[in-house]
Write a structure and sequence with these properties.
36% of the residues lie in helices and 24% in strands. The protein is built from 6 helices and 9 strands, in the order βαβαβαβαβαββαββ. The protein starts with a strand and ends with a strand. Bound molecules: 5-O-phosphono-beta-D-ribofuranosylamine. 5-O-phosphono-beta-D-ribofuranosylamine binds next to α1, β5 and α6. One of its GO terms (cellular component) is cytosol. Catalyzes the transfer of a formyl group from 10-formyltetrahydrofolate to 5-phospho-ribosyl-glycinamide (GAR), producing 5-phospho-ribosyl-N-formylglycinamide (FGAR) and tetrahydrofolate. Keywords: Purine biosynthesis, Transferase.
Length: 199
């Protein structure tokens, strides 16, 4: 299966996929990496792996719809079977979801539907939960609202700060994301009764 990964930051989740997808037994290859900003470690990781990387910046487009169309075209050029949003911090618009709907997954550092949005780790910590976790879900038009594919709880330790808890979550996210991608590439997934399979 051909995967395009979307990133916005350090790209450690991307790196986990690159490390696995480079192995002969892994049923998927990362064919390109897309970002919403140019100078980020996630792009550098792709370049080091010799994989095409592109940045589609909102600031370079007259409006959000034009950005959405440009991102859709840039991703479509690589003919992905699956799009993986791994720390991508923009909402994917209608043009993107029309083109790739049902084949876009996202990883979120909380047990959705708890703590959606861009500050999930801080919000969980502030709420005083004893457990938070990692969620991999299908992307729909909402914010972190699509059908859940996989989840794993992560304990909160006394004295945790956001960075420490987020690192503990990301260690789980990396493993869960690789498992879900391998599963989807091998036999597809049934989510909410719907078969999500990729060639
Ligand atoms: C991950 O925890 C992801 O769930 C969240 O941002 C983090 C991205 O980390 N949206 P990285 O850029 O892959 O290191």
């Amino acid at each position: 299966a051909r995967i395009v990964v979307l990133v916005s930051g350090t790209g450690t989740l991307l790196q986990a996929l690159l490390d696995e997808a480079g192995q002969p037994h892994f049923p998927a290859r990362v064919v390109a990496v897309g970002a919403d900003r140019a100078k980020i470690e996630g792009i550098a990781r792709a370049e080091r792996a010799g994989i095409p990387a592109f940045a589609v910046r909102v600031a370079d487009h007259p409006d959000r719809a034009a950005w959405d169309a440009a991102l859709t075209a840039a991703v479509a050029a690589h003919e992905p079977d699956l799009v993986v949003s791994a720390g991508f911090m923009k909402i994917l618009g209608p043009a993107f979801l029309d083109r790739f709907g049902g084949r876009v997954i996202n990883t979120h550092p909380a047990l959705l539907p708890s703590f959606p949005g861009a500050h999930a780790v801080a919000d969980a910590l502030a709420h005083g939960v004893r457990y938070t976790g990692s969620t991999v879900h299908l992307v729909d038009g909402g914010v972190d609202t699509g059908p859940i594919i996989a989840q794993e709880p992560v304990p909160v330790h006394a004295g945790d700060d956001e960075a420490g808890l987020h690192e503990r979550i990301k260690a789980v996210e990396r493993r869960l994301l690789v498992e879900v991608v391998a599963g989807m590439a091998r036999q597809g997934y049934t989510v909410d009764g719907r078969k999500v399979s990729i060639p």
